[in-house]
Amino acid sequence: MGGTTQRIASVDALRGLTVAAMLLVNHPGDWGHVYAPLLHAPWHGCTPTDLIFPFFLFIVGVSTALAIGPRVGQSAAPGPLRAAVIARGLRIVALGLALHALAWWLLNKPEFRIFGVLQRIGICFIAVGLVAVHLRVRGQWALLVLLLAGYGAVLQFGGGSLEKLGSLQQRIDTAVLGRFAYEWNPATGIAFDPEGLLSTLGAVATTLFGLLCGDLLRRDQPRAVLLTGVAAALVGWWWSGWLPLNKPLWTSSFVLFTGGLAAVALAAAHVWVDRLGHHPLGRAFGLNAIGAFAGGWVSSVLLAASGWMGSLYGKGFAPVGAALGPQAQSLAFAIAFVAVWAVIVWALDRRGWYWKV
């Protein structure tokens, strides 16, 4: 969606740091020995790891504002914009399905999972991209409030539990996805997917909040981004007393709390990088974000399928485990994994090679 797209170094840097964090938590050496902050909350709650995906979706919204906002402001025809948004979103979904197919084939997984991280990103990009094309800012704010209130009401008063078993999401995933969900119990027929159907409403709200903050940034209002973020985080924290912070359900309180923190991070990054001129750490990852995520997935699957993963981890990182314990060994592997990809995206950036989906 080329020509008039605004590139802001701080946005690329924040996106890149988020992708690096994704690689860190998704590729430990041993899932049985991971430091608690690098794991998701068991159910209700919010760990540092639970911030990563909402931060990325928030940045998807910010980037959408920077890409589409100028064109809408220049009264560009909505048809081509709409077609470009849908086409790109579907490509991201297709890539996610291809990565799942690779893991299902090479790792002999019993079932194929339909939904996932890239699929959710693609769906949220399409939804919020169309909002950016067809709704002005006041309408976008109204839609966000309606979405948060409506989804929160459905979760709290829609007849389901806020626990995994019995939640509306679990019931819908069981009925619609079945064996193609992330979690599937063939004995009970119960399914659950943390990127399932119902919680996509919360994920869209996070992306829409990013769109609105991106519009503020595009208009050079970082103070407004900061104040909006602080207010959202406080309201989300307050709301969590009734509707808990929960990533798998992507509750409305979780949207506001994590989106607010992401907005604060965006405002801070903008001042640090764009205003004060400091180095945009993570920018190379940000410019090849989807490529780094997909490449990390493929390399991990190939290492596991070839049988090299166990040998590499057991032999190459054993001295760390012997000296500092099994959790440190697992973390050392994850850091090394990120470091390898940092070198790759740095080399790609040096050559001006960027993978656009």
What would you note in describing this structure?
Helix 1 crosses helix 9 (252-275). The N and C termini lie close together (11 Å). The protein is built from 14 helices and 2 strands; from the N terminus they run ααααααββαααααααα. The chain has one domain. It has a two-stranded antiparallel sheet with strand order 1-2. The mean pLDDT is 94. The chain is mainly α.
Summarize the structure.
This is Acyltransferase family protein. With 357 residues, the chain is mainly alpha-helical.
Order of helices and strands: HHHHHHEEHHHHHHHH
Give the proportion of residues in helices: 55-70%
Q: Distance between the terminal alpha carbons, to the nearest Å? A: 11 Å
Count, helices: 14
Biggest sheet, spatial arrangement of strands: 1-2
Integer average pLDDT = 94
Residue share in β-strands: under 5%
Stretches where pLDDT falls below 50 for ≥5 residues? none
Structural class: mainly alpha
Number of domains: 1
Cα-atom Rg, whole angstroms? 20 Å
The best one-word shape is globular
Biggest sheet layout: 2 strands, antiparallel
Q: What is the subunit arrangement here?
A: single chain
Number of strands: 2
